[in-house]
Specification:
alpha/beta, 382 residues, 6-stranded parallel beta sheet, 7-stranded mixed beta sheet, globular, 27% strand, 20 strands
């Protein structure tokens, strides 16, 4: 099945060492035939998402990284603070493949009909280890794109698009009609805004810097609140009154923002009632944490929210496992149909596999900046 392919391929791996480091390196591995339900993808492109940084860099200190060797023998070492080393014990000495999603062409398949049907197709796929020249994945984890689609266009088919659609579906299923989303100028936030505009959903976009407002205004966003503004909480409450938002999705994870969202929803609800109630308005308010842009503890004061509220965590993988095949297929189908429009992704830079070991690149993509999304291209020469 693989006779026309090389005997080996290169992948980028992350290893926790006994010496207290996270090591990034290139590993040459033997290519194996796909199992019956699998396909082999020649990877054309794979994005670096915030969710990739944990498995790849862990708690390693980017500011103190060391580089040894060159070419295929390059090793980047990131010291891990002593307080965080115990959490790495399950993966000590294990070379872990990096990259959660990517795209490419199917060059070999297993025997199952569903796998064989993908031969020669351009697909996007999800699964650990996509920063590689070749990757075996389950056929069920592939999304077939129209013939002629550039792998660069469909590299980000899973994490951001399905997160956006999944959070909106969650809001609808739980009875909410308007939404608050934070880190709204990010690639995911821009997708969120585009989907809500297309689907007629009221969305409050929370940004972190004033210069991000113009970007979203140009995209048609109506409600934008800046956390750096001294009147942020007041403007957020006004936007909640206007939209009726009762659910928020917070990408920061830490700090006071989740509490501020709930407080604004409670403040808006209190404006709508005239009588005094012992436990406040009977309006249910929900905030989901779905990212970790702020690694500090989540801070909130429950007295600000009345008696009907919740803070929880939203994660894509458990969500997809629980919604059922029909809903999942519907969401995936929409992504495939709109990957060059609604769900398009812009990249600041394209790098080869070896570029993942470049200290300057590591410092750039580890900052998780809105304007610094990187794309890994295994076909580029390092």
């Amino acid at each position: 099945m693989l006779r026309s392919l090389p005997d080996t391929g290169i992948q980028v791996v992350s290893t926790a060492t006994d010496g207290g480091d996270i090591e990034l390196s290139l590993q040459r591995v033997s290519l194996t035939e796909p199992r019956d339900h699998e396909v082999t993808i020649r990877v054309g492109a794979a994005p670096i998402n915030p969710s990739d940084l944990g498995p790849m860099l862990g708690p390693g200190d980017v500011l103190r990284m060391r580089v040894a060797g060159n070419g295929e023998n390059t090793v980047v070492s990131l010291p891990v603070p002593e307080s965080a080393q115990s959490a790495l014990s399950p993966r000590l000495g294990k070379a872990v493949g990096t990259g959660h999603e990517g795209s490419g062409i199917v060059v070999a398949t297993g025997r199952d009909p569903d796998a064989k049907a993908l031969m020669g197709k351009i697909v996007a796929a999800t699964g650990a280890g996509m920063y590689a020249e070749f990757r075996n994945v389950r056929a069920a984890d592939c999304l077939v794109l129209p013939d002629g689609t550039d792998p660069v266009q469909c590299a980000s088919c899973f994490v951001n698009p399905l997160t956006v659609l999944g959070m909106i579906e969650t809001a609808h299923r739980e009875g909410h009609t308007a939404i608050v989303n934070t880190a709204a100028a990010s690639q995911l936030g821009q997708m969120f805004n585009r989907v809500c505009l297309m689907d007629g959903i009221s969305l409050i976009n929370v940004i972190r810097r004033p210069e991000q407002e113009a970007l979203l205004r140009d995209m048609g966003a109506t409600h934008i609140c800046d956390t750096s503004s001294p009147d942020f909480e007041a403007s957020l409450a006004d936007a909640v009154v206007e939209t009726g938002a009762t659910i928020g999705f917070d990408a920061t994870g830490g700090g006071p923002l989740a509490g501020q969202l709930l407080k604004a929803m409670e403040s808006a609800a209190r404006r709508s009632i005239s009588e005094v109630r012992k436990y406040g308005p009977n309006v249910y308010k929900q905030v989901y944490l779905y990212g970790g842009l702020d690694p500090s503890p989540t801070i909130f004061r429950k007295a600000d929210f009345g008696s009907s509220w919740a803070i929880g965590e939203w994660r894509l993988t458990p969500y997809l496992q629980n919604i059922g095949t029909d809903v999942a297929d519907e969401l995936r189908g929409r992504v495939a149909a709109e990957i060059t429009t609604t769900f398009k992704t812009a990249y600041a830079r394209e790098i080869p596999l070896a570029g993942l070991l470049d200290p300057d690149a590591i410092r750039a993509f580890s900052r998780r900046s809105t304007s610094a999304k990187y794309l890994v291209r295994p076909d580029l020469q390092g």
